[in-house]
Amino acid sequence: MVHSSVVIEDGANIAENVIIGPFCYIGKDVTLASGCTLESNVILKGKLVVEKDVKIFSFTSIGYKYSDVSIGEKTHVREFVQIGTQDDENQEPKKIVIGANSFLMAYVQILGGVELGDFCILTNAVRLYENVKCEERVIIGGLSTIDANITIGTGVMVGGASFVDQDMPPFTLVEGNRANIKGLNVIGLRRRLENKDDIEEIKAIFKKILGNCVNK
After folding, report:
1. DSSP conformation letters of 166-185
2. Residue 197 neighbours by CB distance under 10 Å
3. How many CA atoms lie within 13 A of 34 on its CB side?
4. Is 196 exposed, middle or buried (0-12, 13-18, 19+ CB in 10 A)?
5. Which CATH number applies to 7-185?
6. Which of 31, 38, 175, 204 has a CA that sits 20 to 30 A from residue 60's CA?
7. What is the DSSP-derived secondary structure letter of residue 112?
8. Which residues are paired to 109 by β-bridges?
């Protein structure tokens, strides 16, 4: 179902069972897979592939004329999110990859070259600068900023209002401005690893590095 006020450029590839609300704009190089839903006032531009069952909420802007963006299936993109900003038209665009089953809350901003793994959560007003890589199941608290060219490991939790300017190893708890490792994400480890001996071994290694800040 496509609202009568929607503008769709010739060349856009839209599956039959996509829902597009009023006052949306869909560029010619956009692909929307089955089950996608766009609420009102969504702008999609550039080379953009949106996989099945993605939901994009109102006043979100994704891509620009020269951008290259992909969004994995079942991801939710909430209100006022901006993915991709205008680069120099003479430069090669930096591809942006948003993994499947991820959740981007309101006012998130993602710049060129970002790679976001599956099952990631970016809470309100998070900003990822150029070439940030978040591995799977990363959670970033509201009002946090990740500096350019930083890698955030699997299962990392970043506290709210943090500024991260260095790579963070997997399953750490990170917080502060400038952010430091505050502990080990033991709950995340328990959700991912069934072997308790493996968990205890990881805890022992981190305790040697981090001291008593490792959670029990």
Report:
1. S-B-TTEEEEEBTEEEEEE-
2. 8
3. 2
4. exposed
5. 2.160.10.10
6. 175
7. T
8. 82, 127
pLDDT 10s digits, 37-69: 999 999 999 999 999 999 999 999 999 988 999
Q: Which of 43-47, 117-121, 199-203, 207-211 has the lowest mean pLDDT?
A: 207-211
Q: How many CB atoms lie within 10 A of CB 143?
A: 15
Q: What is the pTM of this model?
A: 0.93
The alpha helices in the chain, defined as continuous H runs, are: 186-192, 196-210
Tokens of 53: 């069952």
- Peptide linkage before 178 cis (omega within 30 of 0): yes
Q: What is the pLDDT of residues 167-205, one digit of tens each?
A: 999 999 999 999 999 989 988 998 888 888 888 988 888
Q: What average pLDDT is seen over the chain? A: 93
Q: Measured in Å, how far apart are the chain's first and last C-alpha atoms? A: 52
| Residue 203 confidence (pLDDT) | 86
Residue 77 tokens, joined: 């993109």
How many helices (H) and strands (E) are present in the chain, helices listed first? 2, 27
Angstrom distances, CA of residue 136 to CA of 8, 100, 170 = 33, 10, 10
pLDDT at 216 over 80: no
